[in-house]
Amino acid sequence: MPLQLDYLTRSHESRRRDLLLLTLLFGLLFLQLLGHFPLVDPDEARYAEIPREMLERGDLITPLLNYVKYFEKPVLLYWLNAISFYLFGISEFSARLVCALSGLGTVLFSYHLGRELFGRRTGLLGALVLGGCTGFLIQARINITDIPLTFTMTVALGSYILAARDADHPRPGYYYLFYLFAALAVLAKGLIGMVLPGAVIFWHIVLTRRWRILKEMRLGTGLLLFLAVAAPWFVLVCQRNPEFFQFFFIHEHFERFLTKVHRRYQPFWYFIPILFGFMIPWSFFIPTALRNFWRNRALPGGEARLYLALWAIIIFAFFSKSNSKLPAYILPVYPALAILIAGVFDRAFNGDFRPLRRPALAFGWLLVLLGCAALLYPLVAHRPLVGPIGGLVIGSIFILQGAVALAAVKRGDPRQLFVGLLAGSILLFLTAPHIVFPLFVERKSYREPGQIVKKLAEPDAVLVSQGLRQGLSYYAERRCVIFDGPGEIEFGSKIGDQSAWFLNRDGFRTLWNGPKPVYAMILRDYLDELSGGSAIKPRILWQSSKHYLVTNR
């Protein structure tokens, strides 16, 4: 089903046909070669190892990482990945499938939301903008908790405004959908699944002065539904693990937000370049979209645009204020911004190209400059991250995309501009990861050493890691003895008698020189110390730029 230019501009088209088109296009993009690359440490391997251990132990309540208690995140992604492993086997594909489907679901619901609020064309354009964000496409194919959170929070926030937008005819079904998906958002990432939608709704009611919504929201039965979905796991895990409440709710929520305990502090403006870079090629139109919402707030649809702006601004400001920051945290703002940006293009399709002219012109020239820089980078950099062929491919895409944008500005053609940006973004997504991602695999993946251990190690052999390496446990399918610090499983290492599993260097050397076969992942600069201080010289089985896999047999 070709994506023709006139198809984008139609005000009326079959909803089923639109959804089929979007499912085919983005289904291929989200799912293609999903299992091609190994899981990357720490996040992807962590969120695969925990459900693998759940299935192995037959316990879906208490999360363990490297077989010690791990309470940093709720259970939704663990459960979904466990189901994926059960159905399709343990693999990179099944580990990433849930997140890829969550990304696809976010795109499809954004279409539905945009169509219901502003009409068919804005809904379709909004879905294409969201799915055409290279950063969103890439992150949605990574096994991280922020993708299911983005999907559940998008459905929750979208369902609320679909229920409340018509003051005379509220839609109770959408209110209940809001409570259901807010509960799932809590199971996906914790209290922010409730706090952030609550903040957006609060300010929507205050600014529109529609206090009647509080009576229409079915608060009583809605909260019962919310608790019926969200509460059971928290009750069960607290009953089985008395230490869960303090660690999860106090340490992982309040201390994470208010202090620098997680050592992820970044300045307040940290997410501005993150948003700009990850929403390319559409990020240049964000200021225009926000100005458009404000100038047209009195026109039909103004309240819905206000709500989408609140959605984006409040969530962005919340994470900017937090003392713990990672790039994926602001993913839930993308759907709202995508629909607002789609509104600007929708207006341009109606004949008003002026709001697009300046950002498209600036973006076009920037792409040309970035393309030239990408061509030269492998030739002038001391240790380039990409080779000449990679620089040529990425640079050519940037230059071509920029040229199309500049030509569209000259002609005043919003359709050419939109399709050119979308096609360039998809082409960049299809090529860039294969050029850049192998570098991360070499530095951040432990598939090859894990598979070596799985193949060679007998049941009585001991697997050791200098520091926590989540992927080593996952691929070897056995527990690691950790020496030189427990890393992020420090909390679990203090529960029960774990002395045999967490060692200092002296304890490791004793184990190494003992009677059991030992397979150890060590840092490269530790090899000489191990060789000089041990009766048994290490045999190297595998090596990377930072690590050796060695054995005493």
UniProtKB/TrEMBL annotation:
The chain crosses the membrane at residues 20-39, 83-111, 123-142, 174-207, 219-237, 268-290, 302-320, 326-349, 361-380, 386-409, 421-441. Keywords: Cell membrane, Glycosyltransferase, Membrane, Transferase, Transmembrane, Transmembrane helix. Its main location: membrane. One of its GO terms (molecular function) is glycosyltransferase activity. It is a multi-pass membrane protein. It comes from the Bacteria. Residues 452-551 form the Aminoarabinose transferase C-terminal domain. InterPro entries: Arnt_C, LipidA_mod_glycosyltrf_83, RgtA/B/C-like. It is found in: Cell membrane. Its EC number is 2.4.-.-. The keyword tRNA processing does not apply. Residues 73-234 form the Glycosyltransferase RgtA/B/C/D-like domain. Pfam families: Arnt_C, PMT_2. This is Glycosyltransferase family 39 protein. It comes from Geomonas diazotrophica.
